Amino acid sequence: MLPVEVSWFCPLCDDDYAELGVADPTLRSSWPHCRDIVLRAERNGFDNILCPSGYTLGIDSVTFAGGVAPLLKRIRLLVAVRCGELWPPQLARQLATLDRMLEGRLTVNLISSDLPGAPLPPEPRYRRTRECMQILRALLEGKSVSHEGEFFPLEIEPPGVRTCSGRAPLFYFGGLSEPARETAAQEADVFLMWPERITELAVLLDDLRARAGRHGRRLRFGYRIHVVVRETESEARAAARALVARLDPAEGEEIRKRSLDHASEGVRRQAQLRGDSDDEGFVEDQLWTGIGRARSGCGAALVGDPDQVLRKLRSYAELGIDAFILSGYPHAGECDHVARDLLPGLETGPLARAEASEEADARPPDRG
User: Of 9, 52, 244, 245, which has fewest CB within 10 angstroms of its CB?
Assistant: First the structure.
């Protein structure tokens, strides 16, 4: 198995439970709770950690990243930012500052979002996202921007603060809709996916490779999934059942609807997987969809003993996925399980800037 980046998840968006759907005030999104999870992930040897963003949920990702950055020595931060919420030049300045604070260990998960309170249909929203990504990459690489776009008419010099490398951090980006795939093919470094059957994943990767190739680019691939790993498969399945044992279906539906992205193509696909699962919620070996009964977005988990889960992760790596973003409930406890039972069986290391992006980085400087 080739080296892979293994990341953990920081539940900034009020997504931490001992039992799904059962509120626990000690697990609410807060500075001390989320800070401690990041520090735990660093101690446990994870390469990176996703700090998610949701306007209506939890605490702000960029502000949180600025607070936790001086406490870290090794781990990277994968900071999610919602493209509709921030003016690109100011966002570039924030990201360059964060990269400096992290001594070059910043990666960015760009989300095609609405401006809160001012929704856009998908097609123009993704056009705006592409403009935002183009402007960000240029400014973060120290280039002047002359951009007469549909959404951002700009004549601007790059911010005074630069990233440590002088390059833009890796852009992680995901989405299943047609405009999302095209945005990823044109502008992303790492295409980020939610749980799916192996056969469907292979089709999706082939499609994105072909799309990126038409733009003279190559993509890397990341996979976001939950994990319930225990010493034996029976113990893992029992832990999964206990996680949803007290879940009220109405509460689960309410939780799923809280996200601004609850009606996206990707979320609909996660619901389809649940519909295709067996009586215990499994849609294929080790892939359990029960966790999606109480969350929007990534809606399935790998459930099994260490050998079974590692075998599944290796099967994904054989498809060409080299970045994994794992999570589990509660996030602090499962972080320890995964570090002990899975990390020793994986050759890990943070993703270097993809050589694949070099073609994209040779774009004309005035593209914006």
Answer: 245
**Other residues' Cβ atoms within 10 Å of the Cβ of residue 202:** 14
Would you say 314 and 286 are in contact if contact means Cβ atoms under 8 Å apart? Answer: no
Report the distance separating Cα 51 and Cα 34, nearest Å.
Answer: 9
Smallest CA-to-CA distance from 226 within 263, 182, 273, 268 is with 273
Count, residues in the chain: 368
Count of helices and strands (H, E) across the chain: 12, 13
According to CATH, what is the number of the domain 5-367? Answer: 3.20.20.30
Tokens of 366: 């005035």
110 vs 101: CA distance, rounded Å? 20
Where do the domains of the chain lie? Answer: 5-367
Residue 216 CA from chain centroid, whole number: 25
Residue whose tokens read 């498969």: 233
pLDDT in tens, 282-337: 999 999 999 888 787 888 999 999 999 999 999 999 999 999 999 999 999 999 99
Using alpha carbons only, give the angle 311, 308, 50 rounded to the nearest 5 degrees. Answer: 75
Do 39 and 357 contact (CB within 8 A), yes or no? Answer: no
Distance CA 172, CA 156 (A): 25
User: Which two structure tokens, joined as six digits, stand for 12?
Assistant: 């900034």
**What's the whole-model pTM score?**
0.92
Per the CB < 8 A criterion, the answer to whether 174 and 184 are in contact is yes
